[in-house]
Amino acid sequence: MSRMLDVSDDVRAEIGDEEADRLLAGENAPGNYDCTSCRTPGDSGREATSTVLFVGDETAVLAFAHATCIPSQVVPVAEEQLQGAVRSITASQDGSAGDGSPEQAVLGVTSGLVLIEGELQPALVVEPTSAVARPGADAGDEFLPLLAEQGFQPVADLRAMPASLPGWSVLLAAGQLHAVLQPGAAGGTPVAWWQAHRPLQVTDSWRSAANKSQKVLVLAAPVGSIGQQPREDLLRSALDKAAAEGRLVAATLPLAGT
Ligand SMILES: [Zn+2]
Q1: How much distance in Å is there from the Cα of 4 to the middle of ligand 1?
Q2: What burial class does residue 116 get, using C-beta atoms within 10 Å of its C-beta: 0-12 exposed, 13-18 middle, 19+ buried?
Q3: Most CB atoms within 10 A, among 10, 126, 131, 245?
Q4: HSE of 72 in the Cβ direction (CA atoms, 13 Å)?
Q5: What's the 105 CA to ligand 1 centre distance in angstroms?
């Protein structure tokens, strides 16, 4: 039994005794990992390590952290965001816009490489499938103002990397995209701003670029700005057009996981 890995009772309750025991026996232990809290490398064979489970109603993602950073724990994920992710993944898989009601905005997330400052940067492009109204309001598209309040900055052109956004991160596990995390209420544990119902595949080149830079450019535009672009040069053109029209916000987020 590994004494270096801690599985808390609440994590054990979520993943089950069998999976917890396999982790503790080292069969499923991560070995080397990137700490989900401080994002520096860890080694579950040599350092005290906490298991951290990001959990929604239908999806759970297991991650690891230095025990000195955070204790083993379950991090709840907002059901509302989870439902949005379910629909957006379904929509991207069947190529349709999904069947959500018009009032229910869904975040479509596309990964791609974007050339900035002479380097191909791993990027996520986020575009809702409909207008995003402010909670309680029944009209208007407040997607960009809401993101600006979270610290995303307007992009006039894509020549420089945008500022980083404290407390936010992009969660990649085993080479698949799981979630975009934002700070919890009152400095609590992070919650998912967007979570994939099923982990989203990224290309090998995207993953290696993200592992190299340890950061991900997140670009967001209101519905109708970007669309589904089959090639990265067309994606770039659509992004440049949205930026020129003042319809693009961005932030640089650190990578959590590998
Ligand atoms: Zn750490």
Answers
A1: 14
A2: middle
A3: 126
A4: 20
A5: 35
Query: How many CB atoms within 10 Å of residue 210?
Result: 26
Q: Are residues 50 and 164 in the same domain?
A: no
What is the number of domains present in the chain? 2
CA of 8 to the centre of ligand 1 (A): 17
Q: 151-192, pLDDT tens digit by residue?
A: 999 999 899 999 999 889 998 877 788 889 888 776 667 777
Q: Distance (Å, rounded) from C-alpha 221 to C-alpha 5?
A: 41
193 C-alpha to ligand 1 centroid (Å): 22
Give burial (CB, 10 Å; 0-12/13-18/19+) of 136: exposed
Separation between Cα atoms, residue 216 and residue 17, nearest integer Å: 35
In eight-state DSSP terms, residue 132 is: -
Q: What is the extent of the structural domain holding 68?
A: 5-76
Helix or strand or coil: residue 73?
strand
- Do 178 and 61 touch, CB atoms closer than 8 A? yes
**Domain boundary residue, one of 48, 76, 104:** 76
Domain boundary among the residues 25, 41, 76 is at 76
Written as six digits, the tokens of 147 are: 């993101």
Is there a single domain that holds both residue 161 and residue 38? no
174 in the same domain as 60: no
Report d(CA 138, CA 126) in Å as an integer: 22
Same domain, 160 and 230: yes
